[in-house]
Sequence to fold (219 residues):
Amino acid sequence: MELARSERESAIRRPLTAILGVDSNLRVLRVLAQHGGMLASSEIVRRSRLSRESVRAGLLALESLGVVTASGSGHSKVYRLNDGHYLATTLTALFKAESERFEAILDAVRQCAAGRQLFSLFVYGSAARGDDRPDSDFDIGVVARKGDLDEVVDGLRGGLRNEAERLTFLPNVVGLDFDDVKRLADDDDQWWKNVAQDAVVISGKRPEDAVSFQEKSHG
Fold:
């Protein structure tokens, strides 16, 4: 049975499909909107983490749509969001809201942990690496003393319930005490090595520093 083809959308009625409907277009446009000025294609490659060919294709498409303008020629050519485009203000606001939402998530975690006895509060896993998917957990790690750990973890899980619904993310809180960290480090545990490598600290010290901190406090 032949599958029905999707009908092409009207460019005049639905210009956002043409502008944002391709991953490379979206990522190039995000870089330019967040920067706010002129950028060379090599810098767009670095910031967008796209291939040179993808950036080139995105810039060509966005130029043809009038949402990106270019100056110069050859290797000196630079690009910027066309501030005069009828969607420029709206697109900039969308990317700003996207960025602010992530900061709001980090703030919510930080606020829920405020005043609690912990050594390290951090994000790890795919969210820390930046390769998470829509259904990925937002992995939050906590290192605290054994007597404080349950209160910190339970407080975070309960405190984040409403914020997780409001900001649409899936918090997964994992707690470790100092003995756990030492054991994982001594065992050269691969999961722990990945956690330490990826960790983005929200509050306190880096999680792997718990071992040396404990040794000093017992010294």
